[in-house]
Amino acid sequence: MSRLAITGTSSLLGSRLLRRAVEARGGDAVLALDIAAPPATLDVRHRELDLTEPAADERLLKILKEESVTTLVHAAFFTTPRRDRSHSHELESIGTLAVMAAAAAAGVEHVVMRSFTAVYGARGQNPSFLTEDRPLEAGARLAWVRDKLEAEQHASAFARRYPDLVVTILRVAPLFGPGVRTFYTRLFDKRVVPTLLGFDPLVQLLHPDDALDAFEAALARPRAGAFNVVPRASIPLVAALHLAEKVPVPIPHPIAYAASDALWAAGLVEAPGAFLDYARYPCVADGEKARRELGFTARYSSRDALLAYLRYRHPEGVAAVAEARA
To answer: Is residue 318 assigned to a domain?
Structure first.
């Protein structure tokens, strides 16, 4: 029996992908690859795998052959910056190298890898919509972005070296919706939110159900290359804060960057100052290629995803006001 294997099944997106796959294919046709086992009630095959171990590629190669895996979804990535940079680098960059090497050696036919629209970088010279042929942010200041860039580079290199291996890279916009807990969503749990004086970029907030639909579309239509997975419409950052009944406090950007770095060093905030680039400059990806080649179109807009998160996280008060405004 050929099987679908999924790495990173402890993550929110990975766990939901696993559940959907089991519902569609049955537990015996799906394999969870992670350090932690999935819930016993899911009744799915599980093999323990730590992608930060030195011999992870050899172990994964053995697993893929033993389990007759033909399709692999690689979702083992951090959605929130980590202070242990070496661990993040080992998991995301070196771990992806191990995944691709094992998949190629085992004769896997199709790899679908999660990536992030953040790899384009937030820059003043960005166009209104970033297409997949746009150069990525080489030399990114953020280690969180650099590791994901390197992961994409490893995946693309193996795709070129092994033409029979179809590698699909899904660049997913920031997730926003029920169950999502990242440093992005936690900003909307605060009453007062600092913003950058004079800047109000468009942002894209993707409902997790749309992300799942995109992975299903990619599995159903194997296509090589990178694809942006984005919501139906963007929303200005300040408008999103007002919709959520937050109080934006504009701060001059030189002060904001320095303060954020100091607070990050002190362990008081969840992201370093370089992340403020995404609250200063546009980073809006275009979803036309995914619609055309994968048949994927998001069901929810950024506003819809934000309201879904507010209903989940703040079921009374702010969610009711936001609904009324919408």
So the answer is: no
